[in-house]
Amino acid sequence: MIAGIAQAQPLSIGKLSIRLNARRGGSDTLSLSGSVPMPAGFSAAGQNVSIYVGGVGLSGTLSGQSGALSAGSTRLTLRGRGSTLAPRTFSFSFSSKGALASQFADEGLTPDATQPPKPIAVILLLNGAFFTQSVPVSFNRKTGQASSGR
Question: What is the mean pLDDT of the chain?
Answer without folding.
Answer: 84
